[in-house]
């Protein structure tokens, strides 16, 4: 129903629910769902995301496949000396391994870029 901070039993129940969700074969999460994000990460799944309606209109398509199993970081930090005035966008620093979230434009998430990862791996070990 709602978050209850500093209540151990409540937190244990929430974690149990997220774990149980992670055991499913497929998962559909609603936009901005923390439980869904945690479950998809634990289960190693790329979920289907139900997009939020805008102006009482259902998006077309109403859902889409996530780009990775990583959860969305809704409010990434701003870096640099100008952090209090906008700073440097975390997306610019971490690119090409970070993209915008499918369900939150200001959020970021990790994804793998096979060719880039392969080159990094080769440069480290060969």
Automatic annotation (TrEMBL):
Pfam families: XG_FTase
EC number: 2.4.1.-
Alphabetic keyword roster: Cell wall biogenesis/degradation, Glycoprotein, Glycosyltransferase, Golgi apparatus, Transferase
Compartments reported by the entry: Golgi apparatus, Golgi stack membrane
InterPro entries: XG_FTase
UniProt KW Transcription regulation keyword: no
Membrane topology: Single-pass type II membrane protein
Family of this protein: Belongs to the glycosyltransferase 37 family.
Physiological role: May be involved in cell wall biosynthesis.
Official protein name in the record: Fucosyltransferase
